Q: What sequence folds into this?
């Protein structure tokens, strides 16, 4: 768990520092500035994730439900990304549209199945296996 959390913080730090800060905000950043921004990104991300964890806990959302919901919400991007890598005729617009259409379709069928299959929409019904597999 510790190494996963550490790797995630390093990834967020690097992405923000090099892909956003040094590309768009300060192209001539010194190494000292880059390290400072990197450390600030780690702290900011950690605080934001801590706040999100408290909010989800107070709302009664379990970690298992979050993992299942992530599959529904971001799983639709897998095929378009694979198509971009493996199919020469795949366009960026097609891949982006495919990811969003897949996400909306997955979300729609997930919620419809939970409502029709169990009679209500709640954390309990949306967290069951069958709606997640729809």
A:
């Amino acid at each position: 768990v510790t190494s996963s959390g550490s790797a995630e913080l390093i990834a967020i730090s690097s992405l923000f520092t090099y892909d956003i800060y040094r590309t768009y905000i300060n192209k001539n950043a010194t190494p000292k500035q880059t390290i400072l921004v990197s450390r600030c990104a780690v702290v900011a991300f950690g605080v934001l994730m801590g706040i999100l964890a408290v909010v989800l806990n107070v709302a009664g959302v379990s970690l298992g439900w979050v993992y299942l919901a992530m599959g529904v919400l971001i799983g639709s991007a897998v095929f378009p990304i694979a198509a971009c890598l493996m199919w020469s005729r795949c366009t960026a617009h097609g891949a982006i549209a495919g990811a969003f259409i897949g996400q909306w379709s997955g979300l729609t069928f997930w919620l419809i199945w939970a409502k029709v299959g169990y009679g209500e929409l709640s954390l309990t019904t949306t967290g069951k296996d069958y709606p997640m597999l729809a």
